[in-house]
C-alpha cells in the first residue's frame, strides 16, 4: 500500500512538473493578406531604327500588408512575358507582342504575388497602330 501511494505521488509530481503555461494557449494562425492594389502607370514605345523596337511597361509598387516580399508576373494577353520580376518595369520586345497575338492592341496584366501565393492584379488595355 505504501508503494502505491509513493508511486501515485511520483506520478502526480511528474505530471505537475511537466505542465507548461503555454499548453493552455491556442495558437491561431495569422491569415495571409494579399498585396495591396497597384496600378500600371504607363506603357511607352521606343520607336527606333533597330530591328526589334521595345515597349516598356511601368507599374506602381504593390505593398504587402504583412511585410512579405512581392514579385510580379507580367502577361501580354495570356502569354507570360516574365515571371518573378522584382523591379517596377519590364521591357517587352515588339516581336514578343506578335508572338502573343497582339498586333494592334493588347491587354497587359501584371500580377503581384507574395511569398505565400496571395495575389493582386492590375490590367491595362493598350491600342497602337
Question: How would you characterize this protein structure?
Answer:
By secondary structure, the protein is of the alpha+beta class. It is 18% helix and 40% strand. The chain contains two helices and seven strands, in the order αβββββαββ. It has helices at 2-18, 94-99; strands at residues 40-46, 54-59, 70-76, 79-85, 89-93, 105-114, 119-127. The N and C termini lie far apart (99 Å).
Topology:
Blueprint: H1 2-18, E1 40-46, E2 54-59, E3 70-76, E4 79-85, E5 89-93, H2 94-99, E6 105-114, E7 119-127
Antiparallel strand pairs: 1-2, 2-5, 3-4, 3-6, 6-7
First-last Cα distance: 99 Å
Amount of helix: 10-25%
CATH superfamily of the domain at 40-127: Immunoglobulins
Q: Calculate Rg over CA atoms.
A: 28 Å
Strand content: 35-45%
Low-confidence stretches: none
Question: If classified by CATH, what would the architecture of the domain at 40-127 be?
Answer: Sandwich
**Shape from CA axes?**
rod-shaped
Going across the major beta sheet, what is the strand order?
4-3-6-7
Structural class label = alpha+beta
Extended strand count: 7
Average of pLDDT: 84
CATH class bucket of the domain at 40-127: Mainly Beta
Major sheet description: 4 strands, antiparallel
CATH fold category name of the domain at 40-127 = Immunoglobulin-like
The total of helices stands at 2
List the secondary-structure elements in sequence, H or E: HEEEEEHEE
